[in-house]
């Protein structure tokens, strides 16, 4: 006589199949407080508030506020919690937004750095590159320029036409002449990752004197006030075209392009300024 068998049981070696799909229990919304979607309010630049889901990354909120600012002189840089009588607490880019009792949230705005000029001391920062073994290395700006005379020239991006065909070749061709004027080093700085720049550098086999260094996130470029907004072209934040002669951390020559052309930041212009002693004159 055969034994009774449950239709849902499995034979030996087979995995049992569930009868039905798992059911999700709905939220209990009997309590009025539980019907409210959890959110935080952040006071924006125009003093009106914007709601974000509780736990939203602070950088997302910053980006949303900045998208509403048209030609803003003072962009939003972070979100902070504030309370009367207490020092404000800033949220880092990846910190989740939250609100506590009598603390409120608001945005913080800061004016961008002014473009660096003659007589200014350059800020310190880090530039990166790949060494001969393909390992990522870092250079401190001050290690490059302290007690030296160095020429920096900045370009919007690797492999772009004007940078690749005119700006960089000009400095490579005239590098020996520039070094003969008492310059210790010539550095090309671009807002790209070091892997791209390493490949770009290989396209100049004749180069002997120009170093290629990267400011991948434009952090140092922003510090000297020479960032270039190319979001509308899908290129994000890049660098304005410029050339600087720096003597022991102080700018002695500053040739900065106003538009997208290449006129004042060329190697020929730098050489001319060095020949005429422009680097020896500082503003009063």
UniProtKB/TrEMBL annotation:
Give the GO terms filed under biological process for this record. Answer: cell redox homeostasis; cellular response to oxidative stress; hydrogen peroxide catabolic process
Q: What class of enzyme is it?
A: oxidoreductase
Q: GO molecular function: any one?
A: thioredoxin peroxidase activity
Q: Which reaction does it catalyse?
A: [glutaredoxin]-dithiol + a hydroperoxide = [glutaredoxin]-disulfide + an alcohol + H2O
**Alphabetical UniProt keywords:** Antioxidant, Oxidoreductase, Peroxidase, Redox-active center
- In this chain, composition skew of type Polar residues spans 1-12
Any one GO CC term of the record? cytoplasm
Q: Which InterPro entries match?
A: PRX5-like (IPR037944), Redoxin (IPR013740), Thioredoxin-like_sf (IPR036249)
Q: Which EC number(s) does the record attach to this protein? A: 1.11.1.25
Q: Where is this region: Disordered?
A: 1-32
Q: Where is the Redoxin domain?
A: 118-264
Enumerate the Pfam families for this protein. Answer: Redoxin
Residues the record marks as active site: 163
Q: Which residues form a coiled coil?
A: none
Biological function: Thiol-specific peroxidase that catalyzes the reduction of hydrogen peroxide and organic hydroperoxides to water and alcohols, respectively. Plays a role in cell protection against oxidative stress by detoxifying peroxides.
Instruction: Name the family.
Output: Belongs to the peroxiredoxin family. Prx5 subfamily.
Question: PANTHER family, alphabetically?
Answer: PEROXIREDOXIN, PEROXIREDOXIN-2A-RELATED
What protein does this entry describe? Glutaredoxin-dependent peroxiredoxin
Please report the organism this UniProt entry assigns to the protein.
Physcomitrium patens (Spreading-leaved earth moss)
Source species taxonomy: Eukaryota, Viridiplantae, Streptophyta, Embryophyta, Bryophyta
